[in-house]
Protein: Phospho-2-dehydro-3-deoxyheptonate aldolase
Amino acid sequence: MPTRDRNLQPVNLPADWSVDSWRARPAAQLPTYPDPVELEAVLGELKSLPPLVTSWEILALRQQLAEAQEGKRFLLQGGDCAETFDACSSEVVSNRLKVLLQMSLVLVHGLRKPVVRVGRFAGQYAKPRSADTETIGGLTLPSYRGDMVNAPAFDADARRPDPRRMVKAHARSAMTMNFVRALIDGGFADLHHPEYWDLNWVGHSPLADEYREMVEAIGDAVRFMETLSGSEVHNLNRVDFYTSHEALLLPYEAALTRQVPRHWGWFNLGTHFPWIGMRTAAIDGAHVEYFRGIRNPIALKVGPSVSADQLLRTIDLLNPDDEPGRLTFIHRMGAAAIAERLPPLLDAVRRDGRRVLWVCDPMHGNTEGTANGYKTRRFSNIGSELEQAFDLHAAAGTRLGGVHLELTGEDVTECMGGARDLTETDLERAYRSTVDPRLNYEQSLEVAMLIVRKQATLAACG
Structure:
């Protein structure tokens, strides 16, 4: 029977699931829109807009994540804590891409395995908040929940949840993806010329010499291979690149969730790799209900309060058939808590024989406030949590297969420490984040080098 004549309905859809079944569950972290009619009109518009990604890209990423589960690849996932509409510019996007490419180059060179590159952008426009409202000077307004929902300025008009912002977020996500694809297809990621990825402001970085020596070594290796083969190695001139974001605003995510020809099931075509945050991970909640029915590879943030029983029950819901590449756990415990809280989870999942990709987020558990009013993270704590994660996985007989970072290619001073030893007084010089502090270029590169050195140490001890 010709493909066009077949019934292409899902053949493995979870029981009692639909694109809107999440609406019957308790939904955390969703804004209250003042005009329901306007909201429905916007959602109708979103449903008619072209998708941002394709089902075959999603399935290709899922295969790569399955290989990462087996130790054949390493996941590098990074980008902004919360994108802003104003930062959708060629310079910001290209600098962000440069950082991830440079980090992946360090990892490929040091780990001797392919790297799965996933950007935390082109959709990271919504953020969870600890409170629904914020009070300043006696005035109480809705909290800022990211540019997809409202604006950061503290006035009633800016803080009003506006559904039209979802359409703006879709448009800027599309522009970001188009530019990234054009850069990569045009040779921006060509390994013959990694020197093109340099950021102008880091020529004097303490890490610059070490990185350039690595670039020269890779260039020599590429030229050596091509001399032996007598022709150019063409598959070095581009890379696979994928996007991810926290799928927080479920009306937006559901509007971009669709069926496609030649593949059964439902795909979130707004991103390749959505994840569930800690604040929306309730087993009976709306977000878990939505996620259990989509075919994308999915991730779950796992914090120090999660029990082994909770984790196993979540696996039963999100990956009941133990499909390879389907489920990633991103643990974010904090440097002070990881040694106590992570091992019971690793042991439970290993004993139960569940197939997951373990990834470390060393950022979110290490956030603190300063005396001068800034939210920051200490690079020493970030590095400590990451190094402990490698050790704990090795001791448990599991594998740390990736890292999840909040970072930027801009010359910001938001996290203390690192190669330039930024202090509390440096924060006010270039603190630009609207929500959480990010690693700058140097600190990001230093994390990549830390991973390589730690892996080498473990290999030598093994």
Summary: The first strand starts at residue 74 and ends at 79. Residues 57 and 415 are 34 Å apart (CA to CA).
